[in-house]
Q: What sequence folds into this?
């Protein structure tokens, strides 16, 4: 009998019938062994939820708002599993979430209960770790093998210093842009600056460096941003906690490795004027090893009672 699965509260544009999590389901179940059911009146085998639904008052799940009060609020009920034999929470972003309502968890946090949780950073969804997929937010998946190989890049084809793609006008991004403008021109793209480009990877190939800061700094929180920079054949200027065992720290520049912004600025300036030093970084693979998906598939199997 086919398993019935439902997706709730995912990001805008998420298609339950065609999305980046389906390769994982196909990998574990086989694509002909499940049905996607969105009607919450139907009891399903597994409800998979995320955190892009109704918004709550600041601090709702961090202890500043009483839990009893929260459970009486209408939006809360749409964030918890409903009419399902089992439930799985996928937390792509570092929000405070109602873990206690969900039986299993995949997300950016490092695991505490190996039978109930697995580390699943957002950047995994940008790769073919679980198989091929033609959709997704960026309409492509990047081959994991390319992130394990050294890059061969002709720096003579690059003419521009730094680029940045901004959807969130985070203060550290803006401060870094202004700081690097003291070295050379920095080009900024994105809807938030009225300079949107459709194919940012091809645009970024023209640059030596790319600012790819995470929106927030949290252990294990690693998104697609550093992947896109690496695929664009430039040097990622990243800000994040690279506690991920898979990342090769020699392949990017992490702002958090410097004592202050001035030291970071000097380092980027020195690299910009030293092509051999830039090549040493560019030729490094982004990943030290292929990520293991054993814990992720184990949690999905457990949630489906396989």
A:
């Amino acid at each position: 009998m086919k398993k019935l699965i439902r997706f709730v509260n995912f990001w805008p544009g998420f298609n339950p019938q065609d999305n980046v999590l389906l390769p994982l389901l196909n990998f574990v179940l086989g694509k002909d062994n499940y049905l996607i059911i969105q009607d919450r009146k139907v009891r399903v085998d597994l409800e998979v939820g995320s955190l892009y639904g109704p918004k709550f008052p600041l601090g709702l799940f961090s202890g500043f708002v009483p839990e009893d009060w929260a459970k009486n609020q209408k939006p809360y009920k749409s964030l918890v599993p409903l009419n399902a034999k089992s439930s799985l929470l996928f937390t792509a972003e570092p929000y405070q979430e109602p873990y206690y309502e969900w039986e299993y968890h995949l997300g950016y946090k490092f695991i505490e209960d190996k039978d109930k949780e697995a580390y699943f950073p957002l950047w995994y969804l940008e790769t073919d770790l679980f198989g091929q997929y033609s959709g997704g937010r960026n309409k492509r998946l990047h081959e994991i093998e390319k992130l394990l190989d050294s890059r061969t890049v002709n720096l003579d084809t690059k003419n521009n210093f730094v680029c940045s793609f901004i959807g969130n006008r985070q203060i550290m991004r803006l401060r870094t842009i202004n700081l690097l403008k003291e070295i050379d021109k920095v080009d900024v793209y994105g809807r938030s600056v009225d300079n949107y480009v459709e194919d940012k990877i091809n645009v970024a190939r023209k640059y030596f460096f790319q600012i790819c800061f995470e929106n927030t700094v949290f252990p294990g929180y690693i998104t697609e941003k550093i992947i896109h920079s690496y695929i664009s054949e430039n040097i990622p200027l990243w800000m994040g906690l690279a506690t991920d065992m898979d990342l090769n720290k020699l392949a990017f520049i992490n702002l958090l490795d410097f004592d202050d912004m001035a030291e970071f600025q000097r380092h980027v300036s020195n690299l910009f004027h030293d092509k051999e030093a830039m090549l040493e970084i560019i030729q490094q693979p982004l990943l030290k090893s292929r990520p293991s998906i054993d814990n992720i598939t184990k949690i999905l199997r457990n949630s489906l009672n396989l």
User: Anything to note?
Assistant: The chain has two domains: 3-142+292-303, 150-282. The two ends are 12 Å apart (CA to CA). DSSP finds ten helices and eleven strands in the chain. The chain has a mean pLDDT of 86.
